[in-house]
Amino acid sequence: MARKPASGTRKRILDVAARLFGEHGVRAVGIQQVIDETGLGKSQLYREFDGKDDLVAAWLRDSDAAWWEVADAAVARHAEDPARQILAVIELVYDGARSPGFRGCPFYNTSTEFRDPGHPGRREAVTHLERLRERLLTLAGAAGATDPQGLSDALMLVIGGLYANGAALGPDGPVRQALTTAEALVRLHCPPR
């Protein structure tokens, strides 16, 4: 009879993988490094994950769920004002990009590391970004944007710029202009109510 993994083993592996992937990038981290840092045996890791690609996809699914939990809470605080909900999403990204030790967005970083559209990590990363774009489109429509698609796409450029510049140039670089830029875009596209 196969042994049942200890409670919390999967979470322990994912926590270590998240830290290592965030610090070094996904490609730079080998499965043996994850095994060594968890202190688990190889068989324990492989009971939980089929391999590194499965681990990367699971990490991104967990990251996606955590991100949306925070984003949904931020948006819910402005339930009666869709334009303000848009800015709440941008503020969430802004705060992340300005946080100490910020190394970039796991979704953008992973999509850059894995160019094959069939790679499980890239698929999870793109799914998150498509969902974000769709949410911005929905909010733009609810805010009465004259061009909801144009606004959501412009905001995705602001978000991508926040993540890239926050990682490369830090909190005192161009990220300082992100909120002002997003506010100007919302004003440009959404008539006052």
Key terms for this structure?
single chain, 9 helices, 193 residues
Protein architecture, described:
Helix 1 packs across helix 2 (31-38) and helix 4 packs across helix 5. It is elongated, with a radius of gyration of 19 Å. It has 9 helices and no strands. It is mainly α.
Assign the structural class, choosing from mainly alpha, mainly beta, alpha/beta, alpha+beta, or little secondary structure.
Answer: mainly alpha
Rg (C-alpha, Å): 19 Å
Shape: elongated
Fraction of residues in helix: over 70%
H and E string? HHHHHHHHH
Average pLDDT score:
95
Largest sheet: none
* Strand runs, count: 0
Q: Which parts are unreliable, with pLDDT below 50 for 5 consecutive residues or more? A: none
Give the termini distance in whole angstroms.
Answer: 66 Å
Walk me through the topology.
Elements: H1 9-24, H2 31-38, H3 42-48, H4 52-76, H5 82-97, H6 106-113, H7 120-142, H8 148-169, H9 178-189
Short description:
This protein is mainly α.
